[in-house]
Amino acid sequence: MQTNLADLPPHAPATVLRLPGTSPVLRRLAELGLTPGASVVLLRRAPLGDPIQIRVRGSTLTVRLRDAKEVIVCEKSCSAATPTAARPR
Asked: What digits encode the pLDDT tens for the residues 30-42?
């Protein structure tokens, strides 16, 4: 099932499908390894829900909820086709 990174349940593995847009934050997340095809797991949420902590490519990142909502992922039960992306420039 396709969803955004912010809506993943904790500890549910997913695959990044795309990072639409070209904001500096999305570009930086891509530089840190959050790219199409990467496996990602939501580790935990802050007490008030924002930010979230994720694991991607062996690294732990903390991402604001508004930025996580921009990252489209597919939960592992999803049988999505090859990931496509609007690659940051």
From this structure: 999 999 999 999 9
Distance CA 40, CA 60 (A): 10
pLDDT tens string 31-79: 999 999 999 999 999 999 899 999 999 999 999 999 999 999 998 766 5
Instruction: Give this prediction's pTM.
Output: 0.78
CA distance 16 to 35: 6
| Distance separating alpha carbons of residues 52 and 7, to the nearest angstrom | 10
In 3D space, the residue among 72, 54, 71 whose CA is nearest the CA of residue 63 turns out to be 54
Which structure tokens are listed for 7? Answer: 């809506």
Query: What gap in Å lies between CA 50 and CA 68, rounded to an integer?
Result: 10
Give the span between the Cα atoms of 23 and 40, in whole angstroms.
20
